[in-house]
Amino acid sequence: LATLEAGEPALELRIQSAEGELIGAAEATSGAEAGAAFLCPAGTTCQVSLALGPGWSGSPIPFDLDVNPATLTRTAEAWTLQPVRALIDWDRDTLVTVGPLGVVVREAATLNVRGVLITPAVLGARAAARCGGYLCVARPGGRGLAVVDLRDPAHPSLVGTVDTDGQALDVAVRRGQIYLAQGQAGVAVGEIGSGGAVTLKTRFSTPGRAVAVAVDERRLVVAGPGGALWVYELGAGGTVLRSTIAASFNVDRVRLGSGRLWVQSSQGNRVALYDLTDAAAPRELGELTGSDTA
Prior knowledge:
- The protein has one helix spanning about 75-80, and strands spanning about 1-5, 10-15, 20-30, 35, 45-50, 85-90, 95-100, 100-105, 115, 125-130, 135-140, 145-150, 155-160, 170-175, 175-180, 185-190, 200-205, 210-215, 220-225, 230-235, 240-245, 250-255, 260-265, 270-275, 285-290.
- The protein is an all-beta fold.
């Protein structure tokens, strides 16, 4: 587990296996922190690198690297420590939380842990969404999309993983159609079939790095660096860019529902709300700050 805290510029943390495969990553923007989780198997070597974010042209910046051994236990207490990147109301009796340590299945009434999935395929998870009867989990790495079977809540199991063009930073699903934010690689679009098999069929470029994605029946919203939000319209003619929104903060998550767009800051202390009834003319409805965002 790694925590990355940034001051002025953005910092990027990357963890690679001895063979060069990306097995974990995190990016912290100015004044924020980010978490990463990775598994370096016993007897192997992993490389941890720290770099300044894209576009930095200033002088070198000193940094401190603290490495401490830790023991991870498979107890309910251990899972309460991980930050929650996704919370999914799976059914009347079950909640699913996803974070850097993996997937945790809980009883809805008591929040007691029913089952846990910890495997390299879901370590460092950044986002998750229900895809058909399965759970799709996005994480940085060469096979950045994992499909999880939750039919037995006490024993969640990995169905498989999918090769991605870039870092899988967020995932959204609409009627079996999967949209995957892949950083510099833009957005990948795929489908989930029988048995949880996912096929990524196409990809489109975005005006900047795609860090978050949300979808509803008519619209797709992609968040980029510096508070940029790109609003696309979905239709028979494909995915068409209709407008651009400039949020007043760096965006971490976006959500769509009933023509409303919810945007959360990377620090988690600001939320903006937009009306997307007309995708070509978004209208800001308001903003929550500080403790209001809870």
